Amino acid sequence: MIFCYLIVTFAVTAVVIQVKPWYTPRYFIPLGGIVIRNSMNAIAIALERLFSELKKKRSEVELYLCLGATYRETTVSIMKNSIKAGMIPSINAMMTVGMVFIPGMMAGQILAGVDPMISIKYQIVIMLMLVGSTTVSSILTVYTIRKLCFTPAHQLKL
């Protein structure tokens, strides 16, 4: 999660917003907080789905392993479902921004007198940042934890 936090927050502050220096606390801390919050939610949901599906499909997983499949081959569908589940909240939030609700950052900028078009552009950047961070953190975490669920001899530990 820290890797994802640093990469996404650096990309947004240095490349998109072009803050000099990129680690200016005024920008880095709020954006980093948003990334961490959403990444933690995505990781929790993705890991919950991974563990529940491994437990639910334990006999199927062990059957594939007994027939000579590797743990990677055995868990392809479980991995897809886990990553999708971790991304659901971010995708749902993207679908409703601007139509159903106005997010806090955008509303704060409008109330402060900033041009609404500028606040909309910032909100688009924030939403894309959230989807990017949840995607990267879900993928990295689920792949790492999946490897820990199996022994070097491709036996399920759960």
From TrEMBL:
Membership in a protein family: Belongs to the UPF0014 family.
Transmembrane segments: 27-47, 91-112, 124-145
Organism of this sequence: Candidatus Schekmanbacteria bacterium RBG_13_48_7
GO cellular component, one term: plasma membrane
One family name in Pfam for this protein: UPF0014
Record's keyword annotation contains Lipoprotein: no
UniProt-recorded name of the protein: Iron export ABC transporter permease subunit FetB
Compartment list: Membrane
Keywords, in A-Z order: Membrane, Transmembrane, Transmembrane helix
Membrane topology: Multi-pass membrane protein
Major location (coarse): membrane
